[in-house]
Design a protein that fits this description.
Layout lengths: L4 E7 L6 E7 L2 E5 L1 E5 L10 H8 L4 E3 L1 H6 L3 H6 L3 H5 L5 E3 L3 H7 L10 E2 L20 H4 L6 E3 L3 E5 L6 E5 H11 L3 E3 L11 H23 L2 H6 L1 E6 L5 H12 L5 E4 L3 E2 L3 H9 L8 E3 L5 H9 L4 E3 L2 H6 L3 E11 L6 E9 L19 H5 L2 H9 L4 H27 L1
Parallel strand pairs: 4-5, 4-16, 5-6, 7-14, 11-12, 12-13, 13-15, 15-16
Antiparallel strand pairs: 1-2, 2-3, 8-9, 9-10, 17-18
Amino acid sequence: MKPINFRIEKKSASSLARAGVIDTRHGEVKTPAFVVVGTKGSIKGVTPEQARELIGNEITLANTYHLFLQPGHEVIKQAGGLQTFANWRLPTMTDSGGFQVFSLGAAFGKGVTKFAKGEVTESDSVIQPRSLNVYSKEAASEHGKLCIIDEEGVTFTSHLDGSMHRFTAERSIEIQQAIGADIIVAFDECTSPTAEYDYQKEAMDRTHRWAKRSLLAHKQNYEAIKKQGLYGVVQGGRYSDLRRASALALAAMDFDGFGIGGSFSKEDLGESLQVVNEILPEDRPRHLLGIGEPIDIVEGVLKGCDTFDCVAPTRIGRTGTIYVKTGKMLTTACGSLTYPETKKINILNQKYTNDHTPLDTFSSGYVASTYTKAYLAHLFRANEMLGPQLASIHNLHFIVDFTKQLREQILQS
């Protein structure tokens, strides 16, 4: 009996899109699905009950780096694992800590995101059009300021007290096993989109060596391999030949599923995913790491991805930026999927002060239909904590439901 099982319910005839189910020991995840991020063992501003009942969440991801530093993986293990400790009561994932290699190292403080716009340079503007995971003071305050990468692993300082720590493939797996998520991820190096070809290849090859070490470390814990599925991570930056090589290397290893990580340009995201997912085994789930804007989810689904995660819904929600639908429907170029056109509004704009219409007329979520723009605008202007809470709940429901609707279309096609 595998720790996780994936079955495909329906495949699109005109794209790589598929609808499936990931079975875990804590329940099933119907794919395509958005994975809600609970970085430190909590979804910011949202209770586990709200996540299940108001958002419709089926799976949550926590951050290995943060839980290692606070409260410590041994504390979580003593509590009975993340399920019990955080009261999530649904399938869970942890990342490997590999993204910290990216965000704490070469990219720290330079505003480099997972996406590049054309030939991006380090001195380009921090906020690129439609970019995710942009540099911010809030993000910087959550990360250390030293990260040194070598063949064996990564040495970094804690953002909490400056203490020095070290992650290796084996250590990352050990920590994730203690945290106890249903799906864990092999240690990898996530590069900057500005990195040159030679370094992208060097980092990719190192990721493959770490992947083998992660697999071996996981298989040496008999209890863990019965409960936790392990994903390998495809890297290669923006280069199709490297992505192809990485997919081939990972596909030859005995992983339970695959993550697609690293950096892309917006223009070649679809091509990169097509290359990778035509190679990865069809019978195992594919997770697009750290990317989850609506248009990117559509592209990812078309190119064969099953799950997605991103911090954007709560991060932007806390500052008053809210996803809404325009009422217009769009169709993909291949004609296989129809999806609502979306935009972001800033609820602090003056025009919403006396706007007593529902927050999002075209969405079905509880917050969208119950509360008005004027009320949300008041909460934010008055610095009431309920404002960021409601905005976060709405944004998460918006993305979770958006992805579920894509799944329904595949099933009905």
